[in-house]
Records
---
Amino acid sequence: MENDNTEKRCQGCGVVLQDQNVLQEGYTTNLENDICQRCFRMKNYGEYQVVAKSNDEYIDILKEVGKTKDLVLYITDLLNLEKNIEQIRTIIPNKMILVLNKMDVLPKSVKEEKLKAYLEGMNIHFEEIIVISTAKNYNIDYLLKRIKYFQTSKNVYVVGHTNAGKSSLINKLIKNYSENTQELTMSPLPSTTLSTIQIDINEHLTLIDTPGLVDTGSILNHVDPKMVKKISPKAEIKPRTFQLKKNQSIVIEDLIRIDYVEGDKNSFTLFVSNDLKVKRLLNIFHNENLKDKNKITYNVKYDEDLVISGLGFVKIVNKGVIDIYIDKDVDTFMRRSLI
């Protein structure tokens, strides 16, 4: 799994650097540079160049990780927990710490122990579940301590979906505990890291960043970069609660419409970025907003979340029936309430 030392790789995204073709991955104007032009423009100008990659390539990389005996950190975003979080165990059998990132974007009233208990209730084997915030430097010291405890060699792999915060965590570990000046490219957009990248933290620990698995059903893959930034929370979420009666509706930007079509008065609490505009429609029959999008009907049980992949979730207290209208390529699902 180690990179070929004869090839110089971009320290930002891991691709092999080349100065021959401006249209291909890894282009740089000078091979003396440490990062490719794509990473340079992302870091300095916030410009993002889409790179189409299939998950098959990334899964092949993860299967190679699974052939090692090394410790793995599986990073996931608390606001966007994957529907099939157990899938990683079918690919990687190694010792694994589940790292629940972005605690800082959830309301302060949410207790860490409750989040850990929720994941422990899924009966997926992890050596430990650790809640962190790279933005607030929360539990990073403890995570490093547990990495030292569980690691089987110098190498520790970092895996997870795009935008879970893998690169942010590695950059934080570099800053806190290493004299290494390397910095990984960070972006809320998919396919930022393109190949494995080795980062020496100290003589006892080398982190190996892997490309993020692309959640093709994430809303982030189906909106423009400006909306991606709006969807990605930059501060603690202020939950917005609406008391809906039958035949009333909630609309989030032009992204999703939620119609409450059957049931007694119900509470809908939105855990989405504060930057997103939300409005309530008092009568679903008098407004055609977003009705041209794909319609899905859910029978909601007591205390369930409607999860919109990449956007966040809506906590619904009572049972009822909802119709949602959303882009046909965006995944949604119901789960028992996280909070």
---
Amino acid sequence: MAVKGLILASLVSAICFDSCINADKANTETTTNNTLTNSKIKDMKSYISMFEIPARDILRAINFYQAILDIKIEKMDVEGMQMGILPYEGQMATGIIIQAEGSNPSADGVTIYLNAGENLQVILDRVEKNGGQIIVLKTAHADESGYFAIFLDSEGNKIGLNSPK
């Protein structure tokens, strides 16, 4: 299991590194200090660098997210695990769907909110048609900064959507 974990960590690190390199190219801010300071943390564009969505059935999960997000997800098999890699070019965070020992879908943990573009209703309308379940309908944020919704995906993970309209 340690070798599998090392392989996964290496693969994910490579994907994150590539994603960060692409994000840095888009960032015009130059830094002369190579050390990370608290002021640098405050300047981050995103507090999330990557996320994993656990799956019991990798193909079902890939198909679900491809259908609701209208994207192409690359499937990759690595010794003892299967992954679906969400498109990461130009993204601040890398997303992976993973089916592996120890990766168990749950509605009880942290909720990831996906950027749903201008209007999350477009994606939310696809959730139940593709095997998910809506938990919270489109709802305005308390501070009127936009909208959110929450659903269970095809694997039983609680996932949120966020949009300005």
---
Amino acid sequence: MNVVNGIMGRVFDLVLAPFSGAPALGLAVVSVLSAVWALLVFRAVTPQAKLAAARDRLMGHIYEMGLYQDQMRVVGRIQRDLARANLRYVAASLPALVVMLIPMVLTIAQLEARYARRPLYVGESAVVAVTLAPSAASRLDELQLTAPDGVTVEAGPVRDRPGAAAAWRVRADKPGRYDLAVTLAGVPVATRVLAAGGGLPRTAETASTSWTHALLYPGERQLPGSGAVAETRLRYPARSTHYLGVELDWLLAFMVLSMLGGLALKDVLKVEI
């Protein structure tokens, strides 16, 4: 997953680079671009004529039900035909939905890494926690965190022996993206990234050995399954995104903007939906 996330991350870094000072505008642009490629994929994968016929038949049965709503026998027949027409429409559109699933998951994951949280401000502190794998749990006292210039370790470690974890409070002194080194008896065993300043850097609260977690939260590299560290955590502040003075969750904003973009562009791109 680290290779896939690295490629996708660089692509989104390039797309969002002009909008580092305007995150809301960047999200709007990505939403519209996502709508465009989704429409093009939908047009390429679905049998457009068959889909249009299934949709027209479906709408016809809905209108028919409105005309004969006081005739129960006819309504029963219409409902049967409506169900069949609905199945035909779903069957015609399902291949495109399957094809779009993975690209859309990757897109949403990249946006989550940038819009769910913001980097630390200069002078702001956060807690970094490291959990050891069961094979290394007995070596908790040897666990250390080292920060480069630009980050200060203010306190710690505070050790949780039953949980085989340790935590440190760190402060961002300069804007940038810093690698915090996790060592065990002086040997590097993991790296935790701390982002500080502005822009739209990739972030994640948790890094683990799970590839599904790395797929959904690509802000941190997946930890090796055979390593001494099972998990690292760094809690970033939540990011706020405003549109016309209204604060919207980033995922809701993406869904609304991409849907509006798709509806506005489907005729331009000649796509039947």
